[in-house]
Every structure is written in structure tokens, then in C-alpha cells.
Request: fold
Amino acid sequence: MNYRVVLSIVFIALGFIIAAVPNNTTLQFKLTPEEMLADLNSRSQYISPDEVAEMIISQDPSIQLIDLRSSEEYNKFHLPGAYNIPLTELLNDEYRYVINQDLKLNVFYSNGTVIADEAYIITRQMGYYNNYVLEGGLNYWAETIMNPEKPAITSPNDELARYDFRIGAGQALGGGSALSSDTKAVAPPPVQSRPKKQKAQGGC
Reply:
């Protein structure tokens, strides 16, 4: 799907969500539409399935997965350790401590990216930081981690290493629930560390 079409869908859906927010809320919007568009166009909100798989397998304590789908979908399949916070409940006070913090990287995900992008926009506008989106959602996760395409034998070494990692990660994470205690992690190709988003200085 064209990225501009996705952005349009996200902004339209965001309008409906904002309209549904109770009038007595004290939350203030932080970014102008121009700033929000620039932020989305930078695509810095996305974390690749490889990064997420590596962090899950290594039991990295800095990641916090947030499944935005319904409880029914969540119960059928979810990524290990993920919280279930449906998008319709994202603004509930009981979840604020999960979403508004700067100790962990929150990674929103759904089946695709539209709903997760909506959650990202909402929390970004509320002034919350360290919120990201699983690139491609569970659909892309299934394609890259659960069923990766084998590269040609003449492919560069980094592509072959990535494939080997994905095969191992898919085997380790295939159940979609808790990792077993005897799971052996496959060494992934190097992944650059992701800096935390910086809070805007001054102004609104």
C-alpha cells in the first residue's frame, strides 16, 4: 500500500479517535500538524522485526511490547511478554504508567501498521516518549521471522547470516507465548542500538 495512502488513513482514523476523547481531559497536544507529519515521514518510529526478535530472544529488559488488538486476537496469538492494550482503551488511566515512561522502549503492534501508527501518533501528541511501532506488524513478522525467504547461496554474508538468525528466531518464537527455559538464542547480525527519542525543548 502506498505510504501516502497509509498516512491519510492514519490521520482520518486519528480524527475519529480524538473526537471520542472525553471533553474533560486535561491532556494537551504537543506537536503542530507540520511537526507531526515531519515526524511520521522520518519513519523513525519503526523498529524492524529483526531488532524485536533479537531483543525478545536475548530477554532484553528494555523492551515492552504492546499488542493493540482485541483480547480475542491476543489470546489466539501474541508475541512473548506482550501487554494487551486494545487501541480503544489506550487512553484509560490504568495504562498511563505503562505508556508514559522513559525506562523502556514501548513497541506497539497490530496485524499491520495502521493501528500501531495511530497509537504512536496519539502518544506522541500527548507528550509521551520512547514509543515505537513494529515495522509491518504481525503480517510482516510472519513473513520475515516465521517464514523467511531463503537467499541465494551467492548472496552477501550479511544476508545469509540474517537468514540463519531468522530461522533460529522463528523456531524459538514459533509458539507466540512464553519462551521455554531451554531456548537457545542464535547470534544475530549486528544491530545498531536505537537512541531514545529526545523531548522537545521549550514551547508547545
Q: What stands out?
A: The first strand starts at residue 46 and ends at 47. The first helix runs from residue 3 to 20. The beta strands are 46-47, 63-67, 83-84, 105-109, 131-134. The chain has a mean pLDDT of 78.
